[in-house]
Design brief:
- The complex is a heterodimer of chains A (293) and B (435).
- Chain A is an all-alpha fold.
- Chain A folds into two domains: 31 residues, no CATH class; 259 residues, no CATH class.
- In chain A, helix 4 runs antiparallel to helix 7.
- The longest helix of chain A has 31 residues.
- The N terminus of chain A is likely disordered.
- Chain B is an alpha/beta fold.
- Chain B folds into two domains: 241 residues, P-loop containing nucleotide triphosphate hydrolases (Rossmann fold), CATH 3.40.50; 132 residues, abc- transporter (atp binding component) like domain (Coagulation Factor XIII, Chain A, domain 1), CATH 2.70.50.60.
- Chain B is 24% helix and 31% strand.
- Chain B is built from nine helices and 18 strands.
- The chains are: A mainly alpha (293), B alpha/beta (435).
- Strand 1 of chain A pairs antiparallel with strand 4 of chain B, so a sheet runs across the interface.
């Protein structure tokens, strides 16, 4: 137990082992930027698992429809989008039936939006643990994001059903789907970690997030195809990490003509940048969490 | 093997109070503050005291704890005990100095951290275990023990929100009690739960201490500290004020804490202990002339007085006192049973009840008095004031007390003078001891 102590803390340095097997942890002030200490995260992976599992259990324990919400949420959005954007506004959908065109994007989007919403307040909802027990704090927003994977899987099952219904056979590109799921996770983690850390100090974040998600939904090609943009703009569009995710999902599943565009590469780089910078920011702020929260 | 478990050097922790960084900031404040920042920097340079409101919760702590030693950390509220534990548990960073911890630390600043009301007992055991740093296999291996210790077998699959608070606490403590770190850091977790539960917690704690593990224990329960810990550290305003053998340090704490503590008076009825029927006005330790008397000669009687105001007529009131030694042992309890007011309702107004402890009864030492006023039928306790007053009994140096000519330490809570009879077979004169 207390595996973290198997090795010195990030900022603590090992100070000579008096006997082999004895762990020496040096607790000293940390200033400025601190290393990420990914191995501590790895050592606490079981806690990560338990927290994600708790979030899943608790989320559905007192809801009447339970896990059905995981499907209803993107499905109903799809219905609304189909009626307003598909039928009434005649939004182009790259020659794919509009319902599945939008649903294939809504599945990763819902994962992203829920992950960000849920984890942005996660530090505060778990403040009790933060002020009473040591563990790598990054685990909390990460667990909050990963707990959304179950919902993702459920919604994805319906997506497969819809593909059968519309007679859309996946192309060979489907083998790349896991990569785009990974990209979705990285994007969600990056944004979540930033917001979770910011929310500890600035409780405004709670009010900003719903607004942010709403804007972001329309800034992402969910109701419309990326093919509406041309030239340099379609590449610049990739600065929104979710553009790469949504395009990737459509390409891998529905075979949309995506010239695996530079936008996807831009999205991937952006996601990674946001994530790494977010983790550093989080680690920098982490020292004062227990004092501020 | 190195025999140091924890080495603390120059450890300090500074908290900001008030000021701009005091509480949660809003983005607006930060944004609005941005243009003013250079100005403020100038101002703060000239007038630092205004912007730098901070206090040191801990200051220049330096001490060492040996492997396998149980150490108590005592001190009044705000002395820095919890801050120290938080630093050692790596929850918060120190501002200065460092602490070196040799071995795996398990810290219990609270039991049931991470418990979720919606989850069942079984689920919470795994969750809480993981939060405390146990591996899933370890939790599985100890699962039955944990459940048995908590006595919640029948409710394992019930959400803990349906547990009674007692069951909840037992389960929470049980998980914590099965942690097996090399260094155990425990905060006031024993202050909760009923007597039975506290006893079990203490029992488990002394087991852990007895297994040769290093224990760091913060408590207000002086009896527990003296029982569990060989060593104690007394903190005062963030600094070490004494360090040494636990009973001595506990004694020092009590003396420091209670100079002139032989009298306690409540001037405002609303703030006084009690209820609508009766309020406590004061408790004092006095001599025969009713002078407050904090240090008592062992040969003289000690009078302990409780003054209270009866607000409602018709209550049969039973005053009682409990006397505890500095190590927390209850020396004795005394009820008023032989006054003319026994089983008679007391009239409205001020009442004084005194008990006389004869001379040559209590051993030398420091005693804390708990004042209780109860009604037994129907049972109710009007007030129960723990440790209201403190007094010290000094033994006589003249050889006319029970210690006779012995000048060394003497055990026992009481030191009565009893008659002795000694018969010498070969003495004709018999020295006058025989009848």
């Amino acid at each position: 137990m207390f595996e973290d102590a198997q090795r010195p803390a990030t900022t603590s340095r090992s100070v000579g082992h008096p006997t082999p097997g004895t762990v020496v942890v040096r607790i000293a002030p940390r200033r400025g930027w601190v290393p990420l200490d990914l191995s501590a995260l790895w050592q606490y992976r079981e806690l990560l698992y338990f927290l994600a599992w708790r979030d899943i259990k608790v989320r559905y324990k007192q809801t009447a429809l339970g896990a059905a919400w995981a499907i209803l949420q993107p499905f109903l959005t799809m219905v609304v989008f189909t009626i307003f954007f598909g039928r009434l506004a005649h939004m182009p959908s790259d020659n794919i039936p509009y319902p599945i065109f939008s649903y294939a994007a809504l599945v990763p989007w819902t994962f992203f939006a829920n992950g960000v919403t849920f984890s942005s307040t996660s530090m505060v909802t778990n403040s009790n643990m933060i002020s009473k027990v040591y563990f790598p704090r990054l685990i909390i927003p990460i667990a909050a994001v990963l707990s959304g994977l179950i919902d993702f899987v459920l919604a994805f099952v319906l997506l497969i059903g819809m593909m059968f219904y519309y007679g859309l056979a996946p192309t060979r590109a489907i083998v790349f789907l896991p990569l785009f799921l990974l990209l979705a996770i990285v994007a969600a983690l990056g944004v979540s970690i930033w917001l979770a850390a910011l929310n500890v100090e600035f409780r405004d974040v709670r009010y900003v997030v719903p607004f942010l998600i709403q804007i972001w939904l329309f800034a992402t090609p969910i109701a419309y195809p990326t093919s509406l943009l041309h030239g340099i703009w379609s590449t610049a569009y990739g600065l929104n990490p979710m553009v790469g995710v949504v395009d990737g999902f459509r390409w891998a599943l529905l075979g949309t003509k995506m010239t695996l565009s530079p936008a996807v590469a831009v999205s991937a780089i952006m996601s990674l940048l946001i994530l790494v910078a977010g983790m550093y920011y989080f680690r920098r702020m982490e020292k004062s969490f227990a004092d501020v929260i | 093997m190195s025999d140091t478990a924890i080495r603390i050097a120059g450890l300090g922790k500074q908290y900001r109070i008030g000021g701009p960084a005091g509480s949660y900031r809003t983005i607006r404040e930060t944004l609005v503050g941005l243009p003013a920042r250079p100005l403020r920097a100038l101002r703060s340079r000239s007038n630092r005291a205004h912007t730098d409101e901070s206090f040191w919760a801990l200051r220049d702590l330096t001490f060492e704890i040996k492997r396998g030693e149980a150490t108590g950390i005592i001190g009044r509220n705000g002395a820095g005990k919890s801050t120290l534990l938080k630093i050692l548990s790596r929850i918060t960073d120190p501002t200065t100095g460092y602490a070196e911890v040799h071995g795996r630390v398990g810290s219990l600043l609270e039991v049931g951290t991470g418990f979720h009301a919606e989850l069942t007992g079984r689920e919470n055991i795994f969750l809480n275990g993981a939060v405390l740093g146990m591996k899933r296999n370890e939790i599985k291996a100890r699962f039955d023990e944990i459940v048995a210790f908590a006595e919640v077998e029948a409710f394992l699959d019930t959400p803990v929100k349906r547990y009674s608070s007692g069951m909840y606490m037992r389960l929470a403590f049980s998980v914590a009690a099965h942690l097996e770190p090399e260094i155990l850091v425990v905060d006031e977790v024993l202050a909760v739960g009923d007597m039975e539960f506290q006893k079990r917690c203490l029992g488990r704690m002394s087991e852990v201490a007895g297994e040769g593990r290093t224990v760091l224990f913060v408590s207000h329960n002086m009896a527990a500290v003296t029982r569990l810990c060989r060593q104690a550290v007394l903190l005062d305003a963030g600094r070490i004020s004494a360090i040494g053998a636990a009973p001595e340090i506990v004694g020092a704490y009590w003396q420091g804490e209670h100079t002139n503590a032989a009298e306690r008076v409540w001037n405002h009825r609303a703030a006084a202990p009690g209820n609508d029927a009766v309020r406590l006005l004061g408790v004092r330790v006095v001599d025969e002339n009713l002078n407050v008397y904090p240090v008592v000669d062992i040969r003289h009687p000690i009078l302990v007085e409780m003054e209270y105001e009866v607000l409602e007529e018709g209550h049969i009131l039973v005053p009682s006192f409990q006397f505890h030694t500095e190590s927390g042992v209850c020396a004795f309890v005394v009820h008023e049973f032989n006054s003319k007011w026994r089983r008679t309702p007391r009239p409205r107004g001020r009442v004084r009840s005194l008990v006389e402890i004869p001379g040559n009864f209590l051993a030398e030492g420091i005693y804390s008095v708990t004042a209780v006023l109860g009604t037994y039928v129907p049972f109710s306790v009007h007030f129960y004031e723990e440790g209201v007053v403190i007094f010290q009994v000094k033994d006589s140096p003249d050889g006319d007390s029970a210690r006779g000519d012995w000048a060394g330490p003497l055990a026992g809570v009481v030191r009565p003078v009893f008659p002795w009879r000694t018969y010498a077979e070969n003495s004709r004169s018999g020295l006058g001891d025989a009848e």
